DNA sequence: CTGAAAGCGCTAACAA
DNA sequence: TTGTTAGCGCTTTCAG
């Protein structure tokens, strides 16, 4: 199989079928304007010759690419689920996706550069660390939708989870179970951390538990949760809400190693509903982001900008949903204490 | 920002810089044949106008795309690591990657179809369920490299882990620790399961432990490992090698719930060295696949086929490497025996 | 060193 | 219903 074999083109099919290339083009893309018999014959020839349309030539000519560029990070557990939803939504809207990955050795800038060269009509960015000014200069050239990113700018659409609401749900659940001394392990500098922390504090105040507010600094990793647990152990609360699932598993581990039972002695709530939280022996109660809605929202925003239709609000906030599993339960009746609200 | 703003093209840059498009083309791709001064000026203008080359037009004209299509599955934990290595290797070989994802609602055929339209020069397929005949018909049109797939065919290059060797490493490690009664939980119908099982059996025989061979049927999921553990508990061996990490965690969980200590009472070895196995509270000894070597190998095979260079062997088998962590240790001296540690 | 001209494979007007 | 004619933005001879 030498590469000498030129690929079959429209012209080849046209010649073989004895018609013009224009007609074959019409038939190939199912456009109206071709006789049933001819159509049939052309299709047959195309199949026989193994004709494959050349998307580049096609897009080049038709001016538009109907391509949506997506930048995702191979390391992020979330991004893959998001891709699933994005493909669905894009397909429905009549757009195609082209993917560009960020890896430990391939930066966001490179990933975006590739997409720009592919003449995408809009960009969907997951997470990412780009400076606001860079984002702005890209957004000046084509619509950009940022998902799960802090960018609260006027030149970029933002689709993200309602982090504050998620924390509310977690706290409400714990309070409903009877907890009062509820701590929070935050996510440090990570996107969403500030919102989740604030949400926790607000919910605590709303329940009249301001005096029990206790924030321990953490991070996004397992070790961050473990470290936070050590600090919590000095005076354990009856429940903890944690920035994310991974950190929560680190915390769980340390808690158990120190002989605390979960949820007997202490309840734990994670965030994100990752596969990890669903593992039987972790079985973590967690706040799940509505990934499909977020994906659909992102595509809808992108398409709206491309087609210049509505230009609705720049920000789309999607409500999360609490997934109650095995790490939360009623607190043990406090020894000796009898404060009943 | 209306879409009326046409993108800047080579011609725009040429006009602005007062030179011909051909010259700009030369400068833009760093080809020889332009004066230093002109080059400088053209580059400056291009930057000022925000010129971005159009990869489609470029590739269309130059005949070749230098594009490698990659089909991966968003659900597979492995595939993302593989992508990292693939980007590196492809870049070094002067090729670009275009990604096409398989999702729960987007099949492999669709994913491949997109890539074919993009005029990739070769395909790299991760896993996948395509029938051999389909694979063959695709391979008839362009070089195909299959990774981690059973395809042992003459029309497709195959790059995969040496599963048998991995099992050998696991068993050797355990025997070295003093284990004799070593069981194996297999992966059912999954790719690699048969090889890993056979490798286990062979290694056991090699160590003169044929009488202790014990295979329990399992699968790739956590619940498969859990189920296997239940069966193993009837008469626990001192060590188990498991098809993959996920299954191993399910097994670990059940073992511990039944009061067995790991590695005190029983040692466990997983397979794949996924992120899961590295979590502090799982800390699973496991057989790691050499992902970077596999990725580099896949690209090297693909490029060789494209450029018609060597046409070496169709199959590339990469040795794995045992990652010793906390779930393996010396067996407890058998009751009645008198070996004191 | 630079420019003019000829397409790559396809689509979109228009004409027949 | 079908064919003709222009290009899309770029690279690539080939002259100057």
From TrEMBL, chains A, B:
Q: Where does the record place the HTH lacI-type domain?
A: 8-62
A single MF term (Gene Ontology): DNA binding
Q: CDD domains per the record?
A: HTH_LacI, PBP1_LacI_sugar_binding-like
Q: Does the keyword Transcription regulation apply?
A: yes
Q: Which PROSITE patterns would you find in this protein's record?
A: HTH_LACI_2
Pfam short name (any one): LacI
Keyword annotations for this protein, in alphabetical order, are: DNA-binding, Transcription, Transcription regulation
Name used for this protein in its record: LacI family DNA-binding transcriptional regulator
């Amino acid at each position: 199989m030498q590469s000498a074999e030129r690929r079959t083109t429209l012209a080849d099919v046209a010649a073989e079928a004895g018609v013009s290339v224009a007609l074959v083009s019409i038939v190939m893309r199912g456009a109206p304007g071709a006789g049933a018999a001819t159509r049939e014959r052309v299709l047959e020839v195309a199949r026989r010759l193994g004709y494959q349309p050349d998307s580049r030539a096609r897009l080049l000519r038709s001016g538009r690419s109907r391509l949506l560029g997506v930048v995702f990070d191979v390391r992020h557990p979330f991004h893959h689920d998001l891709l699933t939803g994005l493909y669905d939504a894009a397909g429905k809207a009549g757009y195609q996706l082209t993917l560009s990955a960020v890896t430990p050795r391939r930066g966001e800038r490179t990933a975006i550069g590739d997409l720009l060269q592919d003449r995408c009509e809009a960009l969907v960015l997951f997470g990412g660390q780009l400076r606001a000014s860079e984002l702005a200069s890209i957004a000046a050239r084509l619509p950009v939708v940022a998902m799960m990113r802090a960018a609260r700018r006027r030149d970029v659409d933002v689709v993200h989870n309602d982090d504050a609401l998620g924390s509310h749900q977690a706290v409400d659940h714990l309070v409903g179970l009877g907890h009062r001394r509820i701590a929070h392990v935050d996510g440090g500098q990570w996107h969403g951390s500030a919102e989740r922390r604030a949400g926790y504090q607000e919910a605590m105040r709303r329940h009249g538990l301001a005096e029990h507010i206790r924030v321990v600094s953490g991070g996004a990793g397992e070790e961050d949760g473990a470290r936070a647990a050590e600090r919590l152990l000095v005076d354990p609360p009856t429940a903890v809400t944690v920035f994310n699932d991974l950190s929560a598993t680190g915390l769980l581990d340390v808690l158990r190693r120190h002989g605390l039972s979960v949820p007997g002695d202490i309840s734990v709530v994670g965030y994100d509903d990752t596969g990890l939280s669903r593992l039987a022996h972790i079985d973590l109660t967690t706040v799940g982001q509505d990934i499909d809605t977020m994906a659909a929202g992102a595509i809808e925003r992108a398409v709206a900008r491309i087609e210049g239709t509505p230009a609705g609000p720049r920000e789309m906030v999607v409500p999360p949903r609490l997934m109650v599993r095995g790490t939360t339960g009623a607190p043990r009746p406090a020894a000796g204490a009898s404060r009943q609200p």
